[in-house]
Amino acid sequence: MTSNAELIARRNTTIGPYSPLFYNEPLQMVSAKGVWITEANGDRYLDGYNNVPHVGHSNERVVRALCEQAATLNINTRYLNERVVDYSERLLSTFGHGLDRVFYGNSGSEANELALRIARQHTGATGLIVSDYSYHGTTISLAEMTTGLKTREPLGAHVRTLRIPDLDRDERPEAEVLADTLAQLDAAIESLQEAGFGVSACLFDPLFSTEGMPRLPEGLVAAIVARVRAAGGLVIADEVQSGFGRTGTHMWGHDYAGMVPDLVTMGKPMGNGHPMSAVVTSEAMLDEFGSHNEFFNTFAGNPVSAAVGEAVLLEMEEEQLMQRAATLGERALVSFREFADRHDFVRTAKGSGLFLGLDFAIDGKPAPQLAKQVVEAMKQRKVLISRIGRDESVLKVRPPLAFGPQELPVLLEALDNALSEV
Ligand SMILES: Cc1ncc(COP(=O)(O)O)c(C=O)c1O
């Protein structure tokens, strides 16, 4: 086994030292199965964090589908292939609201980039509105609207930000918080129009994951959607984190949030680790974009990706993973609330399905160091979790959806002990 120190040194002289690593002492992983990951020294970790291996690490059905299709045919979409159409029908059958067409991509970034391009063409405007603490990807357009990274490029002149409130952290009456947020949005829209950019789109994650899963004022999301549309803009739901049944209650984050977007983007869990993504939209939107642009993406929507995507959906269905996420999430939240009652520094427990958080604060101020200590203490107990939010003070528990009832007590016991230790 190559020592961590040696591997880090080699990594620094190839990939470079800026590509982030988790933990004070990074983990060198060598294999994984289901919701367990094995470190190079043989230690096993319970995965309470990773959302990409949605139906489980090295899932048999997915691996088999991938290998069989790769051994049979992998070819671009300029040739007819039934598997690609089968998968598209299956994927689209999970949507409502006339969202019945799909463009494929290879990453969440690509999906968001395409959604922005479609919105720009549809509206003839270039102005964009995003949450003031969010991340949507790596391209130039997305880098210009990234607000949720520590080191980043300046915002584009055509970008305005909106602070998403959290009622768990805001002492003001809910109506006042709502009115204040909408006033900010109105000002952003007005400013884009005055500057001549107009409003092309508002892009947000319906769960506001990066923001730390804030508790929103009633009616906020609906009001954002209505105002953006009234200004001529489109609404893009970035479901890279919130989609594929993550919330337990709904397959899609926009349904969880009670909104109907014009475009839905997805990635990460879609291929269980195989790189694939998509933009789902209406027939009218696809026709408009497609008829004005010959759009072709070499690797996107190929038969291997379709086979993998189909295996993910079948596995979810047969193992009833979304329903399981709902049940386990509810059970976990009961314990999380107990932790919040027991420990002064836990301000609140939050989340839905298998996306759960504990918000840490001391004397009413966010406590990121404490959250970091708990993440490290969990690692000592061989459970992987992380933290999110603008202050990185919200503990982030977001395991593969394949997480089972037998694993939940392991995670809860470790968390109980870690919270008592710090
Ligand atoms: C909400 C959200 N959107 C988009 C992306 C970008 O996806 P990718 O890294 O696959 O390009 C991410 C990645 O972290 C994300 O969390």
Please name the defining characteristics of this protein.
422 residues, alpha/beta, Aspartate Aminotransferase, domain 1, Aspartate Aminotransferase, domain 2, seven-stranded mixed β-sheet, five-stranded antiparallel β-sheet, 13 helices, 16 strands, 39% helix, globular, binds pyridoxal-5'-phosphate, PyrdxlP-dep_Trfase, Aminotrans_3_PPA_site, Aminotrans_3
Describe how the helices and strands are arranged.
Layout: H1 4-12, E1 29-33, E2 36-39, E3 44-47, H2 60-72, H3 82-92, E4 101-105, H4 108-123, E5 128-131, H5 140-143, E6 159-162, H6 174-194, E7 201-204, H7 220-230, E8 234-238, H8 253-256, E9 263-266, E10 277-281, H9 283-292, H10 303-318, H11 321-342, E11 346-352, E12 355-362, E13 365-366, H12 368-380, E14 383-384, E15 386-388, E16 394-397, H13 408-421
Pyridoxal-5'-phosphate is lined by residues 107-109, 112, 135-138, 205, 238, 240-241, 267.
Structure, explained:
It is globular and about 60 Å long. The longest helix has 22 residues, at 321-342. It folds into two domains: 48-55 and 320-421, Aspartate Aminotransferase, domain 1 (Alpha-Beta Complex); 60-318, Type I PLP-dependent aspartate aminotransferase-like (Major domain) (Aspartate Aminotransferase, domain 2, 3-Layer(aba) Sandwich). Helix content is 39%, strand content 17%. β7, α7 (220-230) and β8 (234-238) form a beta-alpha-beta unit. It has 13 helices and 16 strands. The chain has 422 residues and is an alpha/beta fold. Belongs to the class-III pyridoxal-phosphate-dependent aminotransferase family.
